[in-house]
Amino acid sequence: MRITVFAVGRMKSGPERELADRYLDRLKKTGVPLGLEFTSVIEIAESRASQAELRKQEESAKVLEALDQGGVLILLDERGKTMPSEAFAASVARFRDDGKRQLLMAIGGPDGHDASLRDRADVVLALGAMTWPHQIVRILVAEQLYRATTILAGHPYHRS
Question: Which Pfam families does this entry report, sorted A to Z (predicted)?
């Protein structure tokens, strides 16, 4: 299954990007033997529409353009559910084992995601009750994807 991270907003070079890239590089190496291939990060600019609802609609349309038909959409959203890393890894494995060809993890812009995109999502996931800066969310997503592969591989990186 191909894994893509979709992000509204561009991440500048610097230590945050380096850390996110480090985890994504690890994901590339550990995922392939498990049938999980990290493909890319798709970054789009924030919409310039004058109203928040229009911005969310435009950005959500671009998420759907990047999602293959039948692909799995995991949406990062403050209204989502939280789950332990083991449960997240099990979800990724279940989607892979169900024959899904793509998993797209979408990080929204400052206005969040359109309600219709949340309704379409296979999983709406929150990284806790706090609001996180976009750069930190990118790092957390990259690390959790890498952690999921180590859990599935039985690697000691993740210890319970």
Answer: SPOUT_MTase
DSSP-assigned letters across all residues of 19-53: HHHHHHHHHHHHHGGGT-EEEEEEEEPPP--SSHH
Q: How many residues does the chain have?
A: 160
**82 among the known binding-site residues?**
no
CATH number attached to the domain at 10-153 = 3.40.1280.10
Does 127 count as an annotated binding residue?
yes
105 is in an annotated binding site: no
Residue 31's identity, in one-letter code, is G
Which residues are bridge partners to 41 per DSSP?
5
Residue 99 vs residues 27, 35, 36, 70, 88: alpha-carbon distances, Å = 20, 10, 12, 10, 17
pLDDT tens digits, one per residue of 6-50: 999 999 999 999 999 999 999 999 999 999 999 999 999 999 999
130 marked ligand binding residue: yes
Query: Is 128 annotated as belonging to a binding site?
Result: yes
